[in-house]
Amino acid sequence: MRSPPPAGAQAGDGHESLLDDEVDRIVGLYRHAGRKLRDADPQDWAAGLSMPQLRVLFFLGRSGPMSVGEVASGVKVSQPSATETLDRLVRAGLVERMSDVSDRRVVRNALTARGREMIDRPWETRRAVLSGVLRKATPADRMAIARGLALLCQALDETVDEAVDESSGHLPAGERCR
Fold this sequence. Notes:
The protein folds into two domains: 42-135, Orthogonal Bundle (Arc Repressor Mutant, subunit A); 137-178. Helices cover 63% and strands 6% of the residues. The protein has helices spanning 15-39, 51-63, 68-75, 79-91, 113-136, 139-167; strands at residues 95-99, 107-111. It has a two-stranded antiparallel ribbon. Helix 2 crosses helix 4.
């Protein structure tokens, strides 16, 4: 969603072009920061896992135990695809199945300790990299970085909330900035 021109600005006076340039710059910075953080990930931390399997692991890590249908909906795949992916993760010892405590007919899929460790490894490494970088920054720069990210998260939460409210009425658990 594009912001309206500032008060007094006329259509076609360069506001859209300026906004496009700012968006391009922010996206470029975001992608650069993400690449630098991913570059520090432990080597081969996800060896042998497909992208759909990783998406399911991270979804379960954010959301907690889920039924196959909830996993399928959460990662936006068909139920048979979610079932196949979960079967492979169970065989790999990264996910376990358990009966729902309130309804024994429902089977929940949850990360095992090994599955939790698998998804935590890159985040722990990224946190260490950020800690080292932020340790070198001035307190004012750290505050500016935190403020900028908080503003971005707030704007994304508001925009995504509006879009989701219009379509399905809910956001997947753990999808809002904290």
